[in-house]
Design a protein that fits this description.
By secondary structure, the protein is an alpha+beta fold. The chain has helices at residues 2-12, 20-35, 63-73, 78-89, 136-147, 150-170, 192-203, 245-265, 268-288, 323-326, 332-341, and strands at residues 37-38, 48-49, 61-62, 110-111, 180-183, 225-229, 235-243, 290-291, 296-297, 300-302, 309-311. Strands 5, 6, 7, 10 and 11 form a five-stranded antiparallel sheet that branches. It has a two-stranded antiparallel sheet with strand order 1-2. It has a two-stranded antiparallel ribbon with strand order 3-4.
């Protein structure tokens, strides 16, 4: 009965005709998600979905994996979707954190059964070196739309705001409202190579050529590392010298979802705030991160004080260039050009 309920609810949510191949793919997707569903155990305090059971280092929960899984599972099991999100937010960093209070609000990359396990034969892969792309508000909003659970929205909203603010406190070196990928102040982030690695992990595109240390071409100085500091000049994080178009498209979308939540919860000041901030990012993405000649979006290289910006067309076209379309940040004419380029 429970399994049939998953299918009935999933297909009831699909508008229009559904052919057999679509239904088969949906069933396979549900099978994969539920096969990888694990109960709360050890240091994982809520049940959720792991990426894969076939490899020991994947039997944990990652931030943006969990956000995507929550959007999917909300279609057939709202409680699983909520818990999949809560599992990561159980370890949201606070100002009372013993190791990195400067990262208050951040969601860490990955959690595992044993928090203290080093990466080794036991499969421990807990990672607090970096975060993951900003998709948490997207996940929460989708779960809310599927469940209409306003208590869950009230529970998550202040946590989402704290996480959203963290990107601008700890990942915006020149404070221009446009963020960069980077890494935490962490014992493993102890060299340029390690921080570049953390930044690539934070993007979710671990091996992307846009994170190649040496860059591409004579006028490309490659990756540099900048230290983000607080008002007391203490280091609170590291960033690479790139304003990444995907990250800022995600943050643009986040502001839209936070605005929608604020409308539901009656926080009118936040509605105005996120509307204005989203407009600024949308204009920046379309004015500064788009190349007319090639019809595509790219990262922007920046110097340390933000006075020099270079559109990284020379790095080539990557999947980051169509994220503004998903985020609905692209203008219609630019979106059409990107589709042609793809």
């Amino acid at each position: 009965t429970r399994w049939q309920g998953y299918l009935d609810k999933t297909f009831a949510n699909v508008k229009g005709k559904v052919d057999e191949s679509y239904k088969n793919a949906a069933v396979k997707s549900i099978e994969t998600l539920t096969t990888n569903w694990r109960s709360a155990a050890g240091d994982i305090l809520h049940d959720g979905v792991v990426p894969s059971m076939s490899y020991k280092w994947f039997i944990g929960m990652w931030a943006w994996d969990s956000w995507k899984q929550a959007v999917a599972t909300a279609e057939f099991d709202g409680e699983l979707a909520k818990n999949n999100i809560r599992a990561l937010f159980d370890y949201q960093i606070t100002e009372e954190d013993e190791l990195r209070p400067q990262d208050a609000g951040a969601i860490i990359d990955a959690i595992f059964y044993n928090k203290d396990a080093a990466r080794g034969d036991d499969g421990g892969n807990w990672n607090e070196r970096n975060s993951k792309p900003a998709l948490a508000a997207w996940a929460v909003w989708n779960v809310y739309e599927a469940t209409k659970d306003e208590a869950f929205l009230q529970e998550m909203y202040p946590k989402l705001v704290a996480y959203h603010d963290w990107w601008y406190t700890n990942r915006d070196h020149d404070k221009n409202g446009i963020a960069e990928y980077g890494g935490m102040v962490h014992e493993f982030n102890n060299s340029k190579e390690e921080i570049i690695l953390a930044a690539a992990w934070e993007s979710g595109m671990d091996n992307a050529t846009r994170f190649d240390r040496e860059g591409n071409g004579a006028d490309d100085k490659g990756i540099e590392i900048y230290t983000v500091r607080n008002d007391q000049h203490a280091p609170i994080g590291y960033v690479i010298n790139q304003e990444s178009v995907d990250l800022n498209a995600y943050l643009y979308a986040e502001k839209g979802f936070l605005k929608s939540m604020a409308e539901e919860l009656g926080y009118q000041n936040d509605v105005v705030k996120y509307t204005q901030e989203a407009q600024y990012i949308q204009e920046y993405i379309n004015d500064r991160m788009y190349d007319e000649e090639t019809g595509f979006y790219y990262d922007v290289q920046t110097n340390e004080d933000g006075s020099e910006k270079k559109l990284l067309v020379n790095r080539g076209k990557g999947t980051e260039g169509w994220i503004p379309l998903w985020a609905k940040a692209a203008t219609k004419d630019k979106a059409a050009r990107v589709v042609e380029s793809m």
